[in-house]
Design a protein that fits this description.
This protein has 16 helices and 16 strands. It is α+β, with helices and mostly antiparallel strands. The chain folds into two domains: 14-312, Bira Bifunctional Protein, Domain 2 (BirA Bifunctional Protein, domain 2, 2-Layer Sandwich); 319-407, Anticodon-binding domain (Rossmann fold, 3-Layer(aba) Sandwich). The strands form three sheets. The chain has an eight-stranded mixed sheet. A five-stranded mixed sheet has the order 13-12-14-15-16, with helices on both faces. The longest helix is centred in the first third of the chain and has 19 residues, at 14-32.
């Protein structure tokens, strides 16, 4: 028996439907704000990912890297931002350019619980807008996405400019090194972090205490009111408050995308739950690929992480439509009725095997249907259908044209 590749998984039946519905809800929000889809190849030139970060050749250990038959260095995409930057650097895009991309990405992480080597993401990005109105729109989008998913969000925000100013006041020139250490605050003991910072030649205890205190006022006292980063965070939080985005919170510990984020960064979490996404501003990335200097900001939702959450909650997946069975009538008559139902704009699966009502209900429920339609000789004569609501047990005999009213 051939198994799936280690760290990857199949989604079958209602599991696949659950993920599809998560994708569709996110996509509908993106589209409602005027974002258009972008499709890029799963396979990219390795140079694309090598250029983006500072790790260079070492990134080969973190991604799916390989040589093709012509000895060209290629890799499977591990996110969508690099591909977007490649497109923007080589195309004449009308600004502001707003796009979304939903699909699978690949990383060569060690497989473990809820960390897969192939997983689904849903990204939205805005190019060509310098002001914080772009970040603000992404917060609006986040609110709508979580509303559709019926879960409460928490978005933690910080600024790379603020972190640069703060860390620079301790150790100018070592900002990225220190950020890498601070990023481990949630994973390692505080004293271990302090020791690592001391080894970099800075006052680790003072810096860690200041960050853990998580008060913008205290940081402002340390680096001064003229700090560009402090001003940026204050302005953004003020915009969020003005627009009743009360789920947006400042977090001094947040440091993302050490190599390419340039301004506001954010982490998307569920209220009292795990992280399910993130993003930030990357104003220098497109220029790094040889394009024009282009302001850019984006957000990404982890579809696979959301899927795992809903699975843990035993979320019942609903398949919109009707499962149609016939009792003692010809298959041709059943198929004819199925077509009439579809012509009304309703999904309809016609059973291909003979089954009684009990088996039909069991089959339909396992597929996620909430309704079954039953046609016997009486219904056929009267040109009607018996519709049974599987959630309530209620059933009613209706005309085809009346079915849609029942499903609302």
């Amino acid at each position: 028996m051939i198994q799936t590749v280690r760290g990857m998984r199949d989604l079958i039946g209602t599991d696949a439907l659950l993920q599809k519905q998560i994708e569709e809800k996110i996509e509908s929000v993106y589209a409602s704000y005027g974002y258009l889809p972008l499709y890029t190849p799963t396979v990219e030139n390795f140079e694309l990912f090598k250029v983006k970060g500072t790790s260079g050749e070492q990134i080969k250990d973190e991604i799916y890297y390989f040589l093709d038959k012509s000895e060209r260095e290629l890799a499977l995409r591990f996110e969508f931002t690099s591909s977007l930057a490649r497109v923007a650097s080589s195309s004449q895009l009308k600004m502001p350019f707003k796009r979304y991309q939903i699909g699978e990405v690949y990383r060569y992480d060690r497989p473990q619980a809820k960390r897969y080597r192939a997983f689904e993401q849903a990204d939205a990005d805005i190019l060509g807008v310098e002001g914080l109105e772009a970040e603000l729109e992404l917060m609006f989008i986040s609110r709508e996405v979580f509303k559709k998913l019926e879960i409460k969000p928490v978005i933690l925000i910080n600024s790379r400019k603020l972190l640069n100013d703060l860390i620079g006041s301790y150790a100018n020139g070592k900002e990225v090194e220190v950020m890498r250490v601070l990023d481990k605050l949630d994973k390692l003991d505080k004293n271990e972090i302090i020791k690592m910072l001391n080894e970099l030649g800075i006052n680790g205890k003072e810096l860690v205490e200041l960050i853990n205190e998580n008060k913008l006022e205290s940081i402002e006292q340390k680096i001064g009111i003229d700090s560009v980063g402090v001003k940026e965070v204050k302005e953004f939080l003020s915009l969020c408050k003005e627009n009743k985005l009360d789920f947006v919170k400042f977090d001094a510990r947040l440091a993302r995308g050490f190599e390419y984020y340039t301004g506001i960064v954010f982490e998307v979490k569920m209220d009292n739950g795990p992280s399910v996404g993130g993003g930030g501003r990357f104003d220098k990335l497109i220029e790094k690929y040889g394009g024009q200097k282009t302001p850019a900001v984006g957000i990404s939702f982890g579809v696979s992480r959301l899927f795992d959450y809903f699975k843990e909650q035993n979320t019942k997946v609903k398949f919109d439509g009707i499962f149609l069975i016939g009792l003692g009538i010809k298959k041709s008559e059943l198929n004819k009725t199925g077509n009439l139902i579809r012509n009304e704009g309703i999904n309809c699966e016609v059973t291909l095997k003979e089954m009684n009502i009990s088996k039909a209900i069991d089959f339909a429920e396992k597929k996620g249907f909430n309704y079954i339609g039953i046609i016997g000789e009486n219904e056929l004569k009267e040109k009607k259908i018996t519709i049974k609501d599987l959630s309530t047990g209620k059933q009613e005999i209706v005309k085809v044209s009346e079915i849609k009213k029942m499903l609302v």
